[in-house]
Every structure is written in structure tokens, then in C-alpha cells.
Amino acid sequence: MEQVNLTAWPRQGLGKEKSGRLRKEGFIPAVLYGPGIENTVNLKLDTREVDKALSTHSSGNMFINLSIDGDKKDITVLIKQLDRHPAKDTVVHVDLINVLKDHEIHAEVPIVLTGKSVGVVQQGGILQQEQRIINVECLPSVLPDSIEVDVTPLENGQSVHLKDLVMPEGVKFMEDPELTVVLIAVPRTVVEKTAEEAEAELAESLKDDKAEATEGEEKKD
């Protein structure tokens, strides 16, 4: 699991106007809460530091070694929620959750598909990833960067559910085990072709039955 260093400063005053002023000054409003934190702490982060950390960060979660100005001891935190501007896509607010090494955490972990499905390569199927992240619970030391799902053996019409995933030791998912993660859909053209073939076979079968019946009547005559 990746870890980066960030500096935070106590933030005085709340509200839309004060938050907007902070952003113009090059800061991002943030809050800190979680185990070991009695009351939510209002902070501000350096926009450039946050952008740099996010741009070099490759996994779904990263531990942050947070240094709060005025505090002697650094703490470890995770980004719980990241709010972005709807048009500019810039970070406008950050929720940080305190992490204790002996306290289980809830986190979102990305699902990464590997391999090339037999259904797609050989049968003309369409791969549909229904879930791209899952919520997990575990100790910080075993939090995975991602959960890999090998789709190679999947044929048309087959799927993988949450209960089918091989989870790392000490990590458990917090959602419905029947949730579909990925499936190989049968193209409509294939379905239509199959239906046409079935109709053709039925018509041929009826034709043969009629021919046999006619032949039987002729023999009686």
C-alpha cells in the first residue's frame, strides 16, 4: 500500500464563503474524524501537495502520513471522501479518517479484470463489468490495492459474483454476496440466429413428420 506525506493546518471558520476564500488562497478545506478522534477536526490542505499526491497515486487507497501544524506527532489517515468541482474536476473538499493499526477500517477497493475471456475471444460475447469497486473491512496492514478477477475461463452467458472472489486473508466484503461483478453477455445477433435456427429445425421436423405420414397413407392404399 502506497503512503505519502501531507501537511495540514487548523482551519478557522466554516461556511461556503470562507471555504471559497481558502481555495483562492491555494488551500483545500478538509475534515478529520474516526477512531481516536473525539471531535471532528477542521483542517486545510495545500492544493499543490494534494494534486501531486493524487497524480502519482496508482492504487485505490493510499495511507497518508499527516503532519498537522502545531502537533508534535504525525498521524496516519486515509481519504474517506474526495469532492470535486462538477465542471473543473478540481478537488474542493477532502474527508480524512484516522487510522489505528489495531482497528479495522472500511474502505473501497477497485476491482481489476485480468485475462481475455473465452466467450469474448472465441464466441463473440460482450464483457460487462457490473461492479468496479467493492466495500471491504480489514485491518490497515492487509488493505489491498485492488482485487483481481481472472475472466479467462468465462464463456457466453457465464458470470462472476461477489461470493466467487478469492479475498486476501483478513479481508472481507461488506456487500451482498450474490452481487454480479462481471458477466459475458450473448450478443443479440447470436440470440436471434439461435432462434432462427430453432425455428428452421422445427419446420424441418414438421416437414419430415408430414412426409412420413403421407408415405404411410400411400402404403395403406
UniProtKB/TrEMBL annotation:
Domain Large ribosomal subunit protein bL25 L25: 6-96
Domain Large ribosomal subunit protein bL25 beta: 104-188
Any one GO MF annotation of this record: structural constituent of ribosome
Region (Disordered): 201-221
Keywords noted in UniProt: Ribonucleoprotein, Ribosomal protein, RNA-binding, rRNA-binding
CC annotations in GO: cytosolic large ribosomal subunit
One GO-annotated biological process of the protein: translation
Basic and acidic residues compositional bias, start-end: 204-221
Transmembrane segments: none
Entries under InterPro entries matching the protein: Rbsml_bL25/Gln-tRNA_synth_N, Ribosomal_bL25/Gln-tRNA_synth, Ribosomal_bL25_b-dom, Ribosomal_bL25_C, Ribosomal_bL25_long, Ribosomal_L25_dom, Ribosomal_uL5_bac-type
NCBIfam families in UniProt: bL25_bact_ctc
Protein name: LSU ribosomal protein L25p
Organism: hydrothermal vent metagenome
